[in-house]
Amino acid sequence: MNAADSRFPVSERSNGALAARVRGSVHVIGAGLLGASVGLGLRERGVDVTLEDLSPTTVALAADYGAGRVRTSEDPEPTLVVVATPPDVTADVVERALAQYPAAVVTDVASVKLAPYLELVRRGVDLTNYVGSHPMAGRERGGAIMARADLFVARPWVVCRDHETPAEALAIVEAVALDLGATLIEMTPEEHDRSVGLVSHLPQVVSSLLAARLIPATEQAIGLAGAGLRDTTRVASSDPELWVQILGANRGPVVELLDAFARDLSGFADALRDPAQAGARRTIADLLSAGNNGVARIPGKHGSSERFTSITVLIDDTPGQLGRLLTELGELGINMEDLRLEHSPGAQIGFAEIAMLPEVAERAVTDLVERGWRTL
């Protein structure tokens, strides 16, 4: 790698702050949630970001939020092009970007990697300067209005390469991911699609189907909903149109996972129909226990598999109470690993479920009670 080339990643300090690893400009095509978040994060590092979107309103809104500026014909060729468009047009936009900016490296952040890659190969596109990638970050609602500069912080960012990917091109994509605070992971497109099918696409389908069962329920029944239902249906509010594209592009791995899930569900239902039959209770227990073992593998804070203990604190549903609780936890030296809030229907009270290391949980409860807090 030629260190004198201004396109290549650098690591230096400027005015006491770490400068961006990529010099030159970054052009973002697609100014929705991911594209605008990339722009916001890089702008914070002093990177010149230009924006493009089929919708003039969308690109203008992203620019107003500070994600970059609308690209003009006078702008020089960018160092990197980030394609942040829906999966069904990713291959088209990548192909156009490679042709329009022949000296730039092009990456895309689509949630499916194999289908766009195979389509580009089928078309005979020169992929020397293309590196597929995917940040494992997002929100239930999309659009530039929901974008955040810290959206990618501490989140995995998968980079897909093959043996023909130049080191320089790979380094530029990795540098942007690092600038945005992400954790780099290398995978093949096949490995990526199988993995996200399990940890993202299957949960989306299960969550949506579960939430759909609430439609015919009575208001009285819905009023009993607690944290368990909210946890398992949280992602069900995602954009159906986008997910039709994602699931269609990754249908092979997702169908395999759904078939396996259906077999487990059928076996569980068969056992539960007659719990008195021989082996039925063991089947139920084994499947539930398998769930315990599976959830224990989900990475915790900072990518570790450490499990945390949760305590629940009752808080009055009035302004300032949550802030006071968090302030007092800080005064007590309690590091909060996670926080979930729940309101009690019809009552002016809320529940703050706080995850922390097991060794500090007992002390936290004792100290909070001494300060007048109620715990469950």
> If helices are DSSP runs of H or I spanning 4 or more residues, what is the number of helices?
13
Q: Which percent band covers the strand fraction?
A: 15-25%
> CATH-wise, what's the superfamily of the largest domain?
NAD(P)-binding Rossmann-like Domain
Identify low-pLDDT runs: 1-17
Give the N-terminus to C-terminus distance in angstroms. 59 Å
Biggest β-sheet strands, sense, barrel? 8 strands, mixed
CATH architecture of the largest domain: 3-Layer(aba) Sandwich
Class derived from helix and strand content = alpha/beta
Domains, number: 3
Specify the CATH class of the largest domain.
Alpha Beta
Shape: globular
> How many strands in all?
14
Strand order of the largest sheet: 5-4-3-6-7-8-9-10
Architecture blueprint of SSEs:
Elements: E1 13-14, E2 17-18, E3 25-29, H1 33-44, E4 48-52, H2 56-64, E5 69-70, E6 80-83, H3 90-100, E7 105-108, H4 114-122, E8 130-135, E9 156-160, H5 167-179, E10 183-187, H6 189-212, H7 219-222, H8 227-233, H9 240-249, H10 251-273, H11 280-295, E11 309-316, H12 321-331, E12 338-343, E13 349-356, H13 358-370, E14 374-375
Helix pairs in contact: 3-4, 6-10, 10-11
GO molecular function: prephenate dehydrogenase (NAD+) activity
EC number: 1.3.1.12
Domain ACT: 310-376
What's the short version?
This protein has 376 residues and is α/β, with parallel strands linked by helices.
